[in-house]
């Protein structure tokens, strides 16, 4: 395993690095940006770009799911979000976007206490399917059993099970926990599951048959896990650990390749590029897409952690707007702040380091920098 | 011992880490938050939660000691504080809370120069006992001999001897220093003593027969030891060192288990959780409880160091208010800033890492992170 | 090679240090500042000071190129800048300097879309030549083939090929990439090429016959590469790596000494001095010279990265003014902020450490400091 | 020698630590603060406290030199300061204290261009001697030869030769450099010389016969060496290195003990205490004493570096006022910001760690802390 340092006489710990701690280094070869490939594939689904819209109400509505699909990406609808609780969530979205910071979470706790309607799950997914794009929806592990049949009735192309810390060995005293292996075996759609943040948990999740695992705790800028419960694994280390699990699992499974998807804390295009450089195959983006002028969050961004009824561990954060969804993905940029042209940035980084596709770019050199 | 680095040719030193430098990492197993146990026990006294209200006038009054007891915790009254100097300290508390920052210490030096009355010690402790909760009071090493008989007359369940740096081998030229071993042997109540911050000092304190040792210098946010006298041991390292002393002492004593109690610098719920993860059995909280709307500090917080007559080494700091004492302990939270629902945060962290009780949670994995 | 640390199980990386992370240490000998030599030579051209004005429109106009030449330095004109696009770029320069930050890049994208005129390349270079100073111009690798004949017709003493990441092995699918080796062999003027940031890329560039290599990405304060594309190599490490390539290339080539020129991120005189201490022979300065009251940027500073049509990776940053070009180079200073008297600072540092010329000063001792 | 890290392929460097990077750790023993000894001795002169007033016009005037002497300390008059240039420098002191920051250095360059008068050197020193306190004056290496006879005529008890970087092997092309060994041999007063910042330079200075060496560059808060010329050695490492030189020199000289005096960058009482913990015998204080209500700087602070005619490397910084000179030395404090009661802070730190005198306190344990 890895180098450990002694924190005190009774405890050792590894050093763990965030994406801010690392930088990509050029090699001896360069390329033209237009020559590199940014395509990404999970199961039978191929996308132009390794970007997934995160299942957060500030990012993915049925409308933006369609838009992302048409742009060569895919948006995952949060099936426990406002769109499956309210016939028309416009009022709730507007209120969350306009409330003062100190009151927003209290209001969200209330707005999200409205029950989820299976009929709305079907309706929303059908709307996306009609547009002819990839249909993807997410449930938390806790609610998967209850609403899965509604999801299957509606039909999805990709199914995402997403929580803050998800394991393949959940233990409960008063209910039978979700059996991921059984569930994935029975489903005929690829399942992406997470978040995980370390080698062992990732390896166990891969063994359940998941098509992809989410690395991170989700929420990023909107998350407050470190302040509230002290749990946190910096993303550069987490991605690299899970990428190693992918390699080992591929060996033990005789060649199954599980997609490693960075999730959370990728606020700027440079973070997105570095996540791939650390070994991710794709990235689930929240805040960057919430900055779209056409995103449902209207300049605000929040995740599922922020609406927990007794222990919210997320914020509603103001991310502002940076351009259309298309400009955020493909540019052109008119500013150098890393908020637009994510794909152009990836192309430029791959060109500067001489790699032709994402798989080879994962091998690029990086340095650790003590200061920024 | 531990890895040392060369600071200069003539001096080596260990690296020492604060709780801010570390994070808890999930393992491969998760649990339901409601399944974990947060109980804590010292001697015959068992508590629902591993939280002790710090003997600071901004935190524990007779009234909040009762309240904490009813909430399953325990509050320690500072027996050298305003409540044993004044029949009714309301005016002094109000004045301290309302003064401008620059004048507060000077006023406190004056207010705390009023002599301590043994009769008030008895009266305050009696008031707490009448409420049927655990009775706990604290004296400094310097004043223990003078006021101990008053304390014993009144009767306490837990007795705390607390100073900034307390050792079992205090040397004095003009008076016989407090013989901790003798004193603890003679008392028939469990004694908690500190602060200590390293293995050797802790081991010697444990040998005096103490039921628990306080790790840290107390005061945390309110302390200025590092600026004023240059003395400081970051808490993550200090707790881990003392936890190792506990293990070694348990061996040499044939099984006596001494409680390790983190004291000071635990401002947010994440800090509290990490203190236990580093090896503490419980935590003495100051600032977090001073934020209670019903705390005597009225949004201000200060400790004994701040009232020293010639060398104050603490501040009166504005901590604001975050909710009732009950909300701070048990939630619900309506914000993700780590100021409320400390017990919920602990349950969530234990659940995310798969541990069932505090003793096993002390073994959880942690990482050291160079940036935050 | 160098010490690597494990970032995660699947990725290792070197530690890389910025100039801010290091400091020069005195030795046992001191000298008089007036006794040290600051001269610098590339091919047949000798300069009083190891300073080159960067090819940026905020720094070098035909006028300031002349001024720098007369001061014993050399200014490189950006032959793709405003001066070769407009007969009289005064209006464009004024507009860029006066626009609000958020609009500046959009305007620059427009202003720099005006085609480059070969006739203006000749005219500007001729104007500099008439003044009797060293004539130096820069093109990007992308445009070198198209405009080189105009440059050669006009005649230059030093030719600079400068991009953000330049390699000797550029790969392109739709055009024949610039063959640096062929080009340099055919030219009869010394060529300086860059930026590079690592040993291997530098070694390959040196083998093309370049007289000097630029280390860094250019732009410094005005660059946003790290945020936008995640690519960055801290300068202290980059210079030292390239200096090692110079040593190894000198050995393999039987004695060819290639100038190592630090480029970008040298905002203060202390940075400039430290760049030489790390092994640079000279420094290409942007922001420091843009602060001249007589610089064309009028207190604003920007580089070629900021005008990219779809992915700008630079800012127009406000650097203010600090004195005349002469005061910035030679003082006197009336402030200790490191913005004036760069040569005096170099002399003082060399005197404090006892070295007589830049070549020996490159051996001076440095320390790495964790905090600043 | 010490652990080195590779900065780049061509350069290695040691890690060097500032006092901010370290903290003192308690041991297993504690003492009463009143039992510790703070006395300090250089040659035949014994002082109550290990504190020297720095030769800076904002700190030591003839009046404050007397005051410091009466308080058991010693103040060193800058014999190249305003007091030896002007019959009555009140106007100059007032003007410097009242000017706007941006204009102060320019005015100082002018005010300090007034020639030094040998007669005033004699007059000022005589005034201090009349008060019956230790008489100490400082010259820079550059001016020592010119004004030494005036100093000797007047008579001093301690003579200080102080520059930013002073070596025993100064090399000059146009004048015979100061022969420190000869000079010290000829003088019959103890000489303190510096600043030095490393083992070798310190060892060579000790061999000249100096009674003490100054460690650091002086000026501290008022110094800008790092920004301007890139030269800097963090003080914790520098003191420890020089303390090791003291040990080795004591061995090679058969027992000569040279005083190691920390100089510069000791802004708060915690810094002062830590300097001694790292191995210093005493500290030369600037900013802390400039904060005296009765200091000549009137809340402003500056050193000799700030008045250099062409390359000022210091600032006039606003330090404010904290109390009388006596309160700064001995308290009482009414604030915990580390600006008053330096001696009380030292006593408290020694008591907390169980040491009885400064010589033994130099052995106290320290830790390196990555964050503050």
UniProtKB/TrEMBL annotation, chains A, B, C, D:
Transmembrane feature ranges: none
Family note: Belongs to the IMPDH/GMPR family.
SUPFAM superfamilies for this protein: Inosine monophosphate dehydrogenase (IMPDH) (SSF51412)
A molecular function (GO) term: IMP dehydrogenase activity
Leader peptide range in chain numbering: none
Protein name: Inositol-5-monophosphate (IMP) dehydrogenase
Biological process according to GO: GTP biosynthetic process
Residue runs in coiled coils: none
Domain IMP dehydrogenase/GMP reductase span(s) in chain numbering: 17-302
Lineage, top ranks: Bacteria, Bacillati, Actinomycetota, Actinomycetes, Bifidobacteriales
Keyword Oxidoreductase: yes
Keyword entries, A-Z: NAD, Oxidoreductase
Entries under InterPro entries matching the protein: Aldolase_TIM (IPR013785), IMP_DH (IPR005990), IMP_DH-rel2 (IPR005992), IMP_DH_GMPRt (IPR001093)
Superkingdom of origin: Bacteria
